[in-house]
Amino acid sequence: MISFKPVEPAEIDVLVALEQQATEYPWSRALFESCLQPDYSNYVLRQGQQVLGYYFAQQVLDEVTLFTITVAADQQGKGYGRSLLQHMIQQAKSAGCRQVWLEVRASNQPAINLYHSAGFQPAGVRKGYYQNAAGSEDAVVMQLLLTKSTTE
Ligand SMILES: CC(C)(COP(=O)(O)OP(=O)(O)OC[C@H]1O[C@@H](n2cnc3c(N)ncnc32)[C@H](O)[C@@H]1OP(=O)(O)O)[C@@H](O)C(=O)NCCC(=O)NCCS
């Protein structure tokens, strides 16, 4: 049985460790902690005591920005990323939001595919926004307009 729960400050250690395994460019503990604010919507997806993944998003007026979404390395490719994204979108709609924004590395094709499949559209490019081993890479800015017919 899987369940979504708001992120608790006490579980940041678990998320930091999971992040280190799951992504080439992990968030720091300080970055996670900076997102523990009332205007954020941060959820963890669990199966029993096991953390499968999580997302961190911030609402400002009627817009939500998705800052990170991560699935544990050994749980990727099982649909949990889509479940997390759909949960985030439903939370945004329930809060009366009109649009969701995010930025993703241009090289992160799995994430770009996931966002496309949920209806996100490219809205711009920030040249050289992210650091990488080669120096820098672009950020793709993506937007999802939330309407009553947005089901994902
Ligand atoms: C991006 C991420 C969250 C996807 O989560 P996931 O649970 O593996 O993805 P799902 O199994 O739910 O797959 C959903 C869709 O994502 C896309 N996708 C997922 N893995 C993919 C891969 N390896 N290659 C291409 N597309 C992929 C596909 O469109 C897939 O739909 P499909 O199965 O119908 O083809 C996961 O790969 C991850 O945690 N990556 C590291 C952190 C990261 O990069 N986060 C995004 C930061 S912007």
Automatic annotation (TrEMBL):
Keywords associated with the record: Acyltransferase, Cytoplasm, Ribonucleoprotein, Ribosomal protein, Transferase
Segments traversing the membrane: none
Principal location listed in the UniProt entry: cytoplasm
Residue ranges annotated for the N-acetyltransferase domain, each copy included: 2-147
Binding site for acetyl-CoA: 108
Catalytic residue list: 103, 115
One Pfam family cited in the UniProt record for this chain: Acetyltransf_1
GO cellular component: ribosome
Catalytic reaction equation(s): N-terminal L-alanyl-[ribosomal protein bS18] + acetyl-CoA = N-terminal N(alpha)-acetyl-L-alanyl-[ribosomal protein bS18] + CoA + H(+)
InterPro entries per record: AcTrfase_RimI/Ard1, Acyl_CoA_acyltransferase, GNAT_dom, RimI, YpeA/RimI_acetyltransf
GO terms, molecular function: protein-N-terminal-alanine acetyltransferase activity
Enzyme Commission identifier(s): 2.3.1.266
Subcellular location: Cytoplasm
PANTHER family in UniProt: ACETYLTRANSFERASE, PEPTIDYL-LYSINE N-ACETYLTRANSFERASE YIAC
Family statement: Belongs to the acetyltransferase family. RimI subfamily.
Function: Acetylates the N-terminal alanine of ribosomal protein bS18.
Protein's recorded name: [Ribosomal protein bS18]-alanine N-acetyltransferase
Native source organism of the sequence: Alkalimonas collagenimarina
